[in-house]
Every structure is written in C-alpha cells, then in structure tokens.
Amino acid sequence: MATTSLSPTPKLQFFDANGAPLVGGLLYTYEAGSTTPLATYTDSTGVSANTNPIVLDSRGEANVWLSGDVYKFALYTSAGVLIWTVDNISTNGSNLPVTDLNGDGTTTAFAVDDGFTAIYINGVYQNRNTYTVTSGTVTFSEAPPDTSIIEVVYS
Q1: Exposed e or buried b per residue across 14-38, where buried means at least 16 C-beta atoms within 10 angstroms of its C-beta
Q2: Which of 9, 103, 108, 132 would bridge 144 by S-S if both were Cys, CB 3.0 to 4.6 A apart?
C-alpha cells in the first residue's frame, strides 16, 4: 500500500504568451528557496524520476508527481527564456496523500492508516454509512467490485 501525492492537476499543461501549448518547454524543479534540483516523478510509484528539466511534450504537457518536499518551479521556453518562477509549492492543502487499494468483489475489510478523511471507489465518494472503521481496518457494508480502485485520502 503506497502513499503518494499528485501535483495540483493529473497532467500539467503549459502555454505560451499566445495561448498555444508550450511545446518543448522546460520545467525545472528545485528545493524551495534555492536552485538545488529536486526530483519529481513520472507516476505515483515515485520510482522513475523525471528529467530535470522536464521537457514538455507536443501538447505542452508532462506528468509531474511530487514527493512530500516543498518545491520551486521555473518554466522556460524551449529556447531557454524564463517565463515564470513559483516558489514554495507543496502538496499540503492542495493535494492530499492518497493510498490506493484494489477491490476483488469479495473482500470487505481493508487495512488502512489512521487519520484518513475520505474514501472513494472508482472516483465516487463513499458516504460514512457505507463502511465502519475499527483498529486500522475499514470494513465496507458490501465488497467493492472486482478490479475497483479504492482511494483512501488522508489529511
């Protein structure tokens, strides 16, 4: 059960001054308040780090998953012209840590960490009357469907 945090949107997209996708744009990621490079990741596993800078694709997009650190982002054109810099970017308050579990159609009880604030199954919020929580276990009144994704959101 991995706990990860997603950047503010699932796929970041950037545009030039004319509103066109920033094809080949460069997103540098640093430790907040510095120019010390800080890794971001290509997916929720946190195993594969993005290049730094991240080179934006033909739609001006990139997958940018953040660790629990605080970042500074600097966005440049493909020619290396600075567009903007934003400091003190973090997942606290904008995105919350999530643990993904998998439903199998029969299991109703799942181990969870204390302190979660919401549960979603396949993106649908689960009302608190559909499950109980005792001693680090959430038990659903009905088993989540086979191949369903159960997202446990923490504050």
Answers
A1: beeeeeebbbebbbbbbeeeeeeeb
A2: 103
